[in-house]
Amino acid sequence: MDLEILKKIIQKASWAPSGDNCQPWRFNWNGKQLKIYHIEVRAHHSLNFNNQVSLFTLGGLIEYLHIASLHYGYEPTFTLPDPTNLDPNFLTQVHFKKTTPQPQPLFEALSLRATDRRPFKNTPLDEKIVNNLLSVSKDFKQANAYVCTAPSEELKKYLVASEVLLFSNKAFLFDIIKWVRFRNKETIDSKDGLPWRNLGVGLRETIVLWLIKRYPKLYDLFKHMGMYNQVSLAAQKLVKSHTTFICFTVKSNENHLIESGRLALRSWLLLAKHGVSAQPMSSGAMLLYKQIVYPKDNFSTKAMTTHFNNGRLILQSSFGFSESERPIWLLRVGLSDPLNNNMKTYRRSVDQIFEVEA
Length: 358
Description:
Layout: H1 3-13, E1 25-29, E2 34-38, H2 40-43, H3 52-71, E3 74-79, E4 91-98, H4 127-136, E5 143-148, H5 153-168, H6 170-177, E6 180-181, H7 184-190, E7 194-195, H8 203-214, H9 219-224, H10 227-240, E8 244-250, H11 257-273, E9 277-280, H12 283-293, H13 302-319, E10 326-334, H14 350-353, E11 354-356
């Protein structure tokens, strides 16, 4: 395989999203196959229970690799890890077969897709885009996507409460803010993590998060001062802007998380191609998935357990998925202006994530 083309494929694939933009992948080429290693130390997060988030985002990475490979004239075949016997630093293998370059409708969207945590414009999505989203699921047997264009107040309240619970849990919050970049130079130098301007909260809350990251003992003080009331107000502003929601589900446990991740990213790329903005609202689905699959591993509070038990019924009513399906991911989508450069995430260079065996 042409090494320079392989580097181009990896460069495109590096733009696949990951939790808090932690980029937990390392690529190795031995002349015959591409090995993709999961870097557990980067992926470690309270939300990433049993690496279920990593498996889901691996699906997105595979979708990116698939599109980029076909564009450059190589057909990839993937050997996936066994989710039922998963090593923390699990391995995915890719073999390439030379073929004729095939124009990919979503190729340009690979680097256009971005997370937008701003309120959206008061303009509904084009019905053709909604229908296209629904048709994407036909290519996947064990995963589905459901669209809600007229969210109920009950759904909005559930999603707001889920965001507040995420920020009010100390372990979750500290795992998030370790990836927040509070200075432009830090964002540019690290080429990972989340720029503070695109956190979806106000300046005052951003300053509070910076202080907590710098002085962790301040957490309890700010919690007692009611900082989460401000988080709630910010989340309400987002979900009450003209918003469509997409819920992604799997039909079994870990075995189909990768497939669901592929479906989710193909849907997101389709949105990006049509100029539609999107924001993952992970807590409302991923924490619920954890509770369904691992019921004995209870949350730290009864309030969280009750909240997500009710949440399953709310999501099922809002999106219409069956009892046998498990919600895994939510996207808030709508129309907005292009992101400013200082709101965009960065990616580490190919030289930092790719190595060739001697």
